[in-house]
Design goal:
Layout (H helix, E strand, L loop, with lengths): L6 H21 L6 H7 L7 H11 L1 E2 L9 E2 H9 L7 H11 L10
Antiparallel strand pairs: 1-2
Amino acid sequence: MADATPLWRALFDDALRKYGPVNLAAKLGYNNHTLVSRINGGHVAASKIFQRRVIDRLHVVAECPVSGLEQPRSECKRLALCPAPTHNPLAMRFWKACQTCTHKPEKES
């Protein structure tokens, strides 16, 4: 049996082909593309933090049930895991829907 490619690696490889190392590094929030190039070349292993960042920044929920739009996982995490926005009725509607959404990310320890 062939090993399944981890989600972070599939996202990383696709984005690397699409954007190149310099633009991918910027998209991941790095000022320098060295880490991206070294991980791609197999010179260093990707840390759990790097893998999580790739998923957060590059994994996209095709259609958010609340907005109906494409939503990066990082935005799902920001909306679903923040404290209830009691000061803003619209944000509260989004937050409530996020609490029962099938795409809701897990809290990190």
